[in-house]
Structure formats: C-alpha cells, structure tokens
Amino acid sequence: MNIQLHAYKTAGRLSRIFWNHHPLSSLALGKMAESSSSSSNPLYFWRETDPVSGYLSQWYYCPFRDDGDEKKTYKTAEHYMMHHKALLFNDEKVALQILRAGHPREVKSLGRKVSNFDEATWNAHRREIVRRGNMLKFTNAVSEEGFQKGTPAKGKSAVKRKYEPIEGSLREMLLSTGEREIIEASPFDRIWGIGFKAADAEAARESWGQNLLGLELMEVRRILREQGEERETKKQKKERKREDEEKDGGEKETGKKDEDEKDKDE
Question: What domains does the chain contain, in order, with CATH numbers?
C-alpha cells in the first residue's frame, strides 16, 4: 500500500472523534445539506484552506485518477488543468513536470511556461478541461479517506507534508450546496473568479469578472445530480420489476394449488 495513503488512513482513524465535529465531517454533512439546499445565498470560495468551502478550490488537495489513464494521479484539480493545458500544445516536458510538482503554486507557474501556447486555442478548450478535471475530482478520488484540508506550505513536498483528514464524500459535499450560486471570490482573478473578495462581492456584482470556475462547478453539480436521479430511477424500476415477478410467482403458485385441490375433489 502507498505509504502516504496508509498514513492518511491511520490518521483518519485516530482523529475520527475530532472530525465528527468538523463542518465537513460525515456526521455534519446532513445538517450542511439541509442548510445549503434551502439557502439562496451565493456560496463564495477562494482559498483551499477554508474549513467550509475550501474543497471547491482548484488548489484543494485531493488525489484522483482518470479511468482513461490510471497511471497518472493528479494531486489537485489545478494539476489536472495545467497538465492538460501542456498536452493541448504538445509540450510533453512541461506536462511531466506538472505531474511531478507538489504545490499547485508551482503547477500554476509551470502552466505559464507551456511552449507553442495559443490563447485562442486555450480559450476554446479551457472550460471543458476544467469541467472534466472537476468531474474526476468529485467522483474518482484515490481514497475516500484521502480528502485533505489544505495544501502544502510553500516549498514543502506534497508527499512529506502532513494533512488533517476530512471524512465524507466530496460528491456529497458538492450536491449538498443545492441550487446555490457558486462563486470564486478571488480578488486577483477576473476570468476564473469575479475579481472581488467575498466581503465586497455583493456591492460590486455589476462589475464582476467571468467566474468561469464557479460556472463549471455548478455544471458538474448539475451533471452529478442528474446521474444520481437516473441511478435512483433505475433502482426503482428494478425494485418494481422484482415486486411484480414475486407477485406473478405468488399468483401462479396459488393457481396451481387451486388446480391441485380441484383434481383431488374429482
């Protein structure tokens, strides 16, 4: 077993009592779902270390894989985004460096070094890449106990850094936000965010940036909800079919008994 993953699981067991009271723990998730789904207030996020909304950040540490290439493990959604940015422009060297990088800050820097970069091409593909990366992040984590709070401090290795485990499913965390508007309140990014911090956001709504990350997270949420509803419908159909078969079988058995009784009387 991977040593790092084993350490995560061990830490998760030791700190289970503590994390039962954490806002993102499995026990707190139900309450969070109720409050989130009934609220119409925007959900602002930015820093990956935020104890409530940090999991929405591209920098949030949550190793995941792509079923199409299980040899690769992406430490964060930022790793996925920049790795595929490099692949889009056939820069294999930088793509490999991104996979090996620890902190997403380093990944972001490497993403700016991609050779043969063309802005129009990137603009045409970036949202699809980010959406696909977040679908994997919220559904294909290496381990349910691998969800962590925060990322390594600057200059630290992602492998050597210790994290505090958060129990619960990222998918359920996202779905628990209901229909709330998801907004990246980064005061430094007007493309993926709105260009304002959360405290100033509402007053400046007419001047917001594009919030592309927030839009893609809401799209991922919509897809996951539809998939869940589809699975539930299939489950219900299967249960109805089983009940009908049991009912038909019971009626046939009753009919057979009636015929047997009739034969005895004759």
Answer: 3-237 (1.10.357.40)
